[in-house]
Specification:
By secondary structure, the protein is of the alpha/beta class. The chain has 14 helices and 20 strands. The chain has two domains: about 150 residues, Leucine Aminopeptidase, subunit E, domain 1 (3-Layer(aba) Sandwich), CATH 3.40.220.10; about 300 residues, Aminopeptidase (3-Layer(aba) Sandwich), CATH 3.40.630.
Length: about 500
Amino acid sequence: MGTPITTSTDSAAESAADNIIIFVPQVDSPAGSGGAKAVDEALDGAISALAADGEIKGKLGDVTILHTLGKMAAKRVLVAGLGKPEKLNLDALRDAAAGAARRARGVGGSNLAIAIDGDPLGTSEAAQAVVEGVQLGLYRFDRHLSPSDDRNDIDGVTLHGSDDAALKRGAEVGEILAEATNFCRDLANEPSNILTPTELAARATQWAKDCGLEIEIIEEGEAAELGMGAFLGVAKGSHEPAKFIVMRYSGGGDEPPIGLIGKGITFDTGGISIKPANNMEAMKQDMSGAAAVIAAAGAIAKLGLPVNVTVLAPATENMPGGSAIKPGDVLKAMNGKTIEVINTDAEGRLILADALSYANHLGLTPLLDVATLTGACAVALGNVATGVMTNDDNLAGEVIEAGVRVGEKFWQLPMYEEYEEQIKSNVADVKNTGGRLAGAQTAAKLLAMFSEDTPWAHLDMAGTDDSDKVKGIYVKGATGTPVRTLVSFVRARGGARLAPRYDSDSLGER
């Protein structure tokens, strides 16, 4: 669980919290309304004076600390910049809240008050964004560090505003989304000697229990009976038993379930086609796709969305053991198609081939698969955007729009027929790599053979699953992408949006 959140209709200026955060835009008179104005008045116009002198500019990412020196019950006020008003949106507010919360934790004090009222704040969407920012920005993965006496923690946050119902609505959604995202981060950051396929299944089982989901773990024997030769082929080199995780949420009556499918390679050595040693430790996160869909299912259930969702997460290690598959081997997937293994390090598409086949067997539609699949996608899009490849452009548009609503970027890559030529095999229906060129698309073309005619979108998050620096809502390590986008997509499919399109009365155009 994250930091406890409460709400209050009292002015933040009256709070006795150790630290108060107020948000100001980049304008000549930043403390012009709401909580910012009340705090400025309590400090005898100190914020306005510093703004006039150019010491408080309101730039996005700026945080200025003022000591109250007894003029208020609180010890400090942190003035967080929102940037230029014409560029102000929920993303900016989310990032500003994250940065200010981290700064508040750094200067000390166990409790925090945040003013969320006045123009342009005061909506439930603003409260949601602030809570997401605080919980995501304060995230730490330190369970394997020795206890530290000088560690600062924030034990409680109170949102102050005039509309308590709006604050509570926004805070509830923000907490659910942030909790799921941070659960995904916890899974992805966990060392692979701890988070084996068995442990991933155990944590998914506990998460399902906590969130009210049904769960089934398909063991290797049953997977063999189902004909999952590609999934089990990847698992052959590992001493750890493979687990195929199935989670179900039923909230949509008789409608076919949406299928969310995640790659769950708990460690990827590359197999016989072993990876270079440099940075191989990052391959503990090759199960980030599975973590994302598992986490998203919990948020969907807690929000009570009027949809049906089934999550499929094939989990195994990719190891170079004596039983491991070798280049040149041929595997048969559940749908009967055969795959020639050219490179054992192209294993993610193998386990997803069986997951997509099983999704069709279950009648799921549409299908979204999430995977840290190709370095080629990271080369193309960097760590800024997740690649989208699809057999249905309208579905890709829905995914991209869902990402816009929560501040996660996606970019559609083409799926031209010519890419299929690169994965033709002389000895099987398809081969598992197509060479250096268009590597993201050729991997997706293989997956398309197993999604078949079902509307399907493939999300390649090889560049966006991890952050190497602290910025806004992101800290070093797993990002939790695209948990919030998946929830936003499912919520829109259920007839509601996670947050409305911005207009002039809220937080500007995105």
